[in-house]
Amino acid sequence: MKNSKYIDKILWMVIFLFFTVIAGLLYHSIKKALPDEINIVANQEQQFDFGLPVNGFIKSVIEVSDMEKSNIPSNQVKINMQQPFTLKSGSSGSFIMACKLFGLINLKNIKIDIVEKQYVIPCGEPIGIYIQTDGVLIIGTSVVSAIDGLNYEPSYKLVKSGDYIVGVNGISVNNKSQLIDLINEYGTEDIVLNIRRNGEMIGIKIAPVQTTLNEYKLGIWVRDNTQGIGTLTFINEDGKFGALGHGINDVDTSTLMELKSGNLYQTNIVSIIKGEKGIPGELTGTIDYNKTNILGDITSNTTEGIFGVSSKLLQKFTKNSSMEVGLKQDIKVGPAYIRCDVEGEVKDYDVEIIEVNSGENNVNKGIVLKVTDENLLKITGGIVQGMSGSPIIQNNKIIGAVTHVFIQDSTKGFGIFIENMIESDNVE
Where would one find the signal peptide in this protein (predicted)? Predict the structure, then answer.
């Protein structure tokens, strides 16, 4: 009997833990499926269909124009988010919608912003990219063979991958050449590297190792620039552009490269490596880094893409080529197309939107798409490297940009919501 009671207790504990885990997973999955922010166009009705067992309560007005009040009252309005619902906005303002699971358990607050209708020009042009880092990026450390025949690793456990060297003994450093010159100049004594680490400035004392009669080394691998090929996503009538749909990360540290300056260059696609299962394809091209081939200036490198200004690129397009910016709620599962250059000219190619994830943490992967265009499949096998930034268009609205390819299926890929790109650098 005692054993039976003991087994019953264990069984009930297992059942309790099982349902607790299920409830926790349900809570977090529903919370993740909800966006942190929703944009709605001023003076328009916007439809939403989350299909979640959640009630939303519009409980406060953050800011509203003095000239005109919003149609959404500031007192609490209950919304059943398990069913399709419509929000109608005023001319301006921001609101908070408190979301509760089953109307009881707090999940999160969603900020609702009223925005003006926006227009940009979808591009699809291939571009050469060159950026210079803000300081010299440390990739890692290494062993140094000294003039005395011994091996040393002077920077081991002192510097970290992802650190930026911005000075030596208080003298500013902008590139590798300056860094090497200063190390050789002050190498006979300990030097202080002025480091920027996670936005904070620190000083690190290191003893250089003499490797030849006039050469000293710290045993660090560094990088001060990078270059590559991508696709221009959009440009507006002020010449402000966005490209790639994702940031430029260092290939070795996988960190977002901190930008000092950068340029877009004219490029020519010379060959295409088709994508295959397990092997991503690639657009390869030539870039002439002559000043006459500069198309524009890159002013920021963010997780949502690179941004800047270009009057040259703007001259290629006419004002009537502008297209309305589609918001997340405008995107539907179904036919769409992407705009890119894989045949010597910019063309539109058919794709299918197969999934839309507007929840949190979907910065670059909110749209899942599949290439259905037979001609594009024949040329590239689907999505390949270099097509990042290709605008995604549906129902005559630009809704996003291609960001990633599925390694195991090159016909499929991810895209970023265009509103996320535009908001990232305030280019509207």
Answer: none
Break the chain into its structural domains and give their ranges.
Answer: 34-115, 119-129+225-426, 143-218
CATH for 34-115 is 2.60.40
**In sequence order, what are the beta bridge partners of 117?**
none
Contact 128, 227 (CB under 8 A): yes
Amino acid 64: pLDDT: 39
Whether 417 has a pLDDT exceeding 90, the answer reads: yes
Residue 332 DSSP symbol: -
| Alpha-carbon gap, residue 401 to 51, rounded angstroms | 26
pTM over 0.85: yes
Rounded alpha-carbon distances, angstroms, from residue 244 to 106, 196, 285, 352: 37, 27, 16, 20
Give the model confidence (pLDDT) of 343-374 as tens digits.
989 999 999 999 998 876 678 889 999 999 99
Exposed / middle / buried, residue 37 (Cβ in 10 Å: 0-12, 13-18, 19+): middle
| Total residue length of the chain | 428
Q: Is the distance from CB of 76 to CB of 29 less than 8 angstroms?
A: no
Digit-coded pLDDT (tens) for 168-186: 999 999 999 999 999 999 9
pLDDT, mean over the chain:
88
**Residue range 119-129+225-426 in CATH 2.60.40.10:** no
* Closest-CA residue to 158 (of 200, 118, 203): 203
Q: Where are the alpha helices (DSSP H) in 166-310?
A: 176-186
